[in-house]
Amino acid sequence: MQSTDIARRGLMLILSSPSGAGKTTLTRSLIERNELQLQLSISLTTRPRRPSEVDGVHYYFTEKDQFAFRRDRGDLLEWAEVHGNFYGTPRQPVEKALASGQDMVFDIDWQGTQQIVEKMREDVVTVFILPPSFAELRSRLDRRAEDAADVIARRLENARTEIARWEAYDYVLINDDLNHAFEQLVAILQAERLKRKRRTGLAHFVESLLSTP
Amino acid sequence: MQSTDIARRGLMLILSSPSGAGKTTLTRSLIERNELQLQLSISLTTRPRRPSEVDGVHYYFTEKDQFAFRRDRGDLLEWAEVHGNFYGTPRQPVEKALASGQDMVFDIDWQGTQQIVEKMREDVVTVFILPPSFAELRSRLDRRAEDAADVIARRLENARTEIARWEAYDYVLINDDLNHAFEQLVAILQAERLKRKRRTGLAHFVESLLSTP
């Protein structure tokens, strides 16, 4: 019997970091590495769809009253309001994925993480990504030509707020080298997949092992 | 600042498996891979020293009354009596190693594991190694020319008893391929080293990060 044949419950890998610490790049790298077989969680949003976006791929787009209805019914694992728009994580696709052994990745902030951890503690693996220094964080944000000075200043303030939440996470990485940080994430994923509690098929496997005369 | 400069508390990696599932080979491979910087815990024993053995390298050799004295004083993290000889793990070298960030490996059975987990839960990472099948376990034991048939039969019975304890472990591996099992152990080690609770220097690092104007 191959080790990989053992049935397993999927896990929820949550990455949080201040803007500029590399979370988005790392998330994309994880998803694009096909052999890791990771799926990115798709958020529900009331924000208007941009022409480049596809419903069900980038977001699930919905209306505010629909969003409120689903939220109040407990359909969302976490939700937030940002600049008047609502964003949330629908519970049903996540539950379906986990039950089938599919791992999911979430690129969300500390408030979203807190809400998900409250509901799904046993399935969740949380990783906080820190920048190597505040100067490095600032220079990464400066290099993003698209952002105006006041946007960068606000992001730095948000970064401080976000960083202050590091203690709520299971793992903490310092992203001083993108490849190294990526390898560390892969190791965390590999290890968490080997946790006994996720390997739901082990009881059956051991039973057949012990029943051999 | 390099991620690896952050002070960290060492961990105790405990490997258990039935005889023949590869635990001893895997333990040796871990210790011999220098870049993993692992130290094997040395047991205290009342068994007579063999000519090939060095005190303080293979075992700490001691007398029965000394062993009993240290055990009763709470100096041992775990102990057992096997065929009239006593074996145990002295607490002090382990505490010293952990405090200095040195990780330790333990090759012990489920009873020793249970005793250590009770005393050191936060520092312990337990891994249970299963054989791919009972037939494979039997053939591995058969190939060990040194053992007589009745010894093999007793080991198979002990293997059943040991295997039945798999549910008490944090991680479970199936050793269907030695290289693969080794890589899985390395991933577990890498991940566990990144656990926030072990990275005792992070609070200081984040403080300096946030105090940058």
Examine the coordinates and then state which fold CATH places here, giving the name of the CATH topology of the domain at 3-41 and 103-210 in chain A. Rossmann fold
Low-confidence stretches of chain A: none
Shape of chain A: globular
Helix count of chain A equals 8
Helix content of chain A: 40-55%
Topology of chain A as a string of helices (H) and strands (E): EHEEEHEEHEHEHHEHH
Provide the structure class of chain A. alpha/beta
CATH class of the domain at 3-41 and 103-210 in chain A: Alpha Beta
How many DSSP E strands of chain A?
A: 9
Largest interface: A-B, 42 and 41 residues
Oligomer description: homodimer
Q: Which architecture of the domain at 3-41 and 103-210 in chain A would the CATH scheme give at its second level?
A: 3-Layer(aba) Sandwich
Q: Give Rg of chain A in angstroms.
A: 19 Å
What does this structure look like?
The structure is a homodimer of 213-residue chains. Chain A has 213 residues and is an alpha/beta fold. Chain A has a domain at 3-41 and 103-210: P-loop containing nucleotide triphosphate hydrolases (Rossmann fold), CATH 3.40.50. Helix content of chain A is 42%, strand content 20%. Chain A has helices at residues 23-32, 64-72, 91-99, 110-120, 134-143, 149-163, 178-193, 202-210, and strands at 12-16, 38-40, 43-45, 59-61, 76-82, 85-90, 103-107, 124-130, 171-174. In chain A, the strands form two sheets. The first copy, chain A, has a five-stranded parallel beta sheet with strand order 2-7-1-8-9, sandwiched between helices. In chain A, a hairpin with a 2-residue loop joins strand 5 and strand 6 (85-90). The longest helix of chain A is centred in the last third of the chain and has 16 residues, at 178-193. The A-B interface holds A 1-3, 6, 128, 130-135, 160, 163-164, 166-167, 169-174, 176, 180, 184, 186-188, 190-192, 194-196, 199, 202-203, 205-206, 209-210, 212 and B 1-3, 6, 128, 130-135, 160, 163-164, 166-167, 169-174, 176, 180, 184, 186-188, 190-192, 194-196, 199, 202, 205-206, 209-210, 212.
